[in-house]
Design a protein that fits this description.
Helix content: 25-40%
Number of strands: 13
Strand order of the largest sheet: 1-13-12-11-2-3-4-5-6
Distance between the termini: 8 Å
Low-confidence stretches: 1-22
Length: about 260
């Protein structure tokens, strides 16, 4: 396997070292590949609906799913329905909605992971924030609501001020705010990508395998944090996240590295 595509960062230090000094990947038949989507596998786009799956990745992912005997999962803040739309006609095991939904295998139906949909009144109140700027896009995911401001980056402070005002008015509402790359997401408290990954890893074909997680955003940090306890490996994209085993510069490097995993299998 060619590891030149990933620069490893030893834990408990911020000084990068060469890839040769980094951890060795487990064989594909012994690992579980857990992959974030936006900003990790796929390049960010002006709006969530404009992301595209490169043709080569559309061949790489099914091949890796086969080589891992089904132990490859997409881990995303997107709903399973939206994940399936993006990757159609392909289907993959997935953790969706920041842990609210899960599909353990492509043969299984999607099931909610003890996460009720957001209250409609809450959704309406937070969605009304989009009136602050025509560039703010509202994405209702059912379990959460995302306010995207990639087309209106100057609106960031106004968005978070408005969200804070609503939260102050509803101090007992079981919600939390997830800041991301030009997005502010409001979701139910009590579930995260980490809780979803933990549950996923308790089921076959993931059970007993070494997890390898790749993510790029603040919402992925909950998974980075649990990888040591699972004896797993984690890699961040576009930045040196705390506690990871290495990082990629951009999604294109992640895609190339996944291709090299197949070559070395």
């Amino acid at each position: 396997m060619n590891q030149d595509l990933v620069e490893t960062v030893p834990k408990k230090t911020t000084s990068p070292t060469s890839a040769a000094a980094g951890p060795r990947m487990p064989p594909l038949n012994g690992c579980a590949l857990l992959l974030d989507i936006d900003g990790t596998l796929l390049d960010l786009a002006p709006s969530p609906h404009e992301v595209r799956v490169p043709p080569k990745l559309a061949k790489t992912l099914p091949a890796l799913l086969s080589r891992t005997n089904g132990a490859l999962a997409l881990v995303s803040g997107r709903s399973l329905k939206d994940i399936d739309r993006i990757f159609a006609p392909m289907l993959f095991p997935a953790v969706g909605g920041h842990g609210a939904e899960m599909r353990i295998s492509v043969e299984n139906e999607a099931v909610a992971s003890r996460a009720p949909p957001m209250n409609p009144d809450l959704i309406r109140r937070f969605a009304a924030i989009a009136a602050l700027n025509p560039g703010i896009l509202v994405e209702d995911k059912g379990y959460s609501l995302a306010l995207h401001f990639r087309k209106a980056p100057d609106a960031e402070k106004a968005i978070y001020d408005a969200v804070s005002a609503i939260r102050a008015d509803l101090p007992n509402a079981p919600i939390e705010v997830l800041p991301g790359k030009l997005v502010c997401e409001i979701k139910h408290a009590g579930f995260t990508k980490a809780t979803g990954v933990t549950e996923l890893m308790a089921h076959e074909p993931f059970k007993g395998r070494q997890p390898v997680f790749i993510g790029d955003d603040i919402t992925d940090e909950t998974v980075f944090a649990i990888m040591p306890d699972m004896k797993g490996l984690s890699f961040s994209v576009s930045r040196h996240a705390k506690g990871v085993d290495g990082h990629f510069n951009a999604p294109r490097d992640v895609r190339a590295w996944l291709g090299h995993l197949l070559e070395g299998a």
